[in-house]
Design brief:
The chain is of the alpha+beta class and 250 residues long. It is built from eleven helices and seven strands.
Amino acid sequence: MAQKVVVEPRLNVFFEKQGLEGCFLVLNPVTDTLHVYNPERAKQGFLPASTFKIPMALMGLDTGAVKDVEEVIPYGGTKEWLKDWERDMNLKEAMKLSNVAIFHQVAKRVGMVRIKSYLSSFDYGNQQTGDDIGRRFWLEGPLEISALQQVEFLRRLSDRKIPLKKETLPAVRELTIYDNILGAAIYAKTGWSGSTGQQVGWWVGWVEVEGLNYPFALNAKIPTLEDAKKRIPAALDCLKALGIWSGKEG
């Protein structure tokens, strides 16, 4: 990780502004400094929830289990939390809608043996999946990851330090683009697990500026759908305060 860690209590104002309890961290590759708000929480493992769609997309595309981002994937006929998830779609739409059913089908195609191998090469969280591919282990456990581990995974990923086929990362960048303003781009994914007692919400990704990558992670206690809307504005405010992002308002 970084050679230097700077605790940033001043970022508390952005969590208070949104009424959130959580943590934020970002790695500045220019100064090799990790900026952290609430370092104790940043070390704590949580369910990755839908942030796991980043590594799951990597696995699906890298193995060829999914041909490309345009391949339409049958959703499997399952009853889902959102009615809009109960239909076939490609990875581009599934990532945009955070469709659990589609990514569960991707997991089944990849298979547990290969998933475990990739989690090891990614050094992703606690790497614990159980053995039942029918379970959504990223939403129910035992898989957990801390905000610190998210940033380290995203650092290695964005800097191409993870062994993947050359076309895999560009495809996942296409899936996760959030914004691109004046040459600065954000690639990111939200996550929310409100049904297991953890009530954790995430926004994780990286800012790319002039060929440099600034991986970041926010997690917070998110008990309601209204609270879930506050994750991105809080993170953008933190990135702006640290001089990393100057795009749209948070």
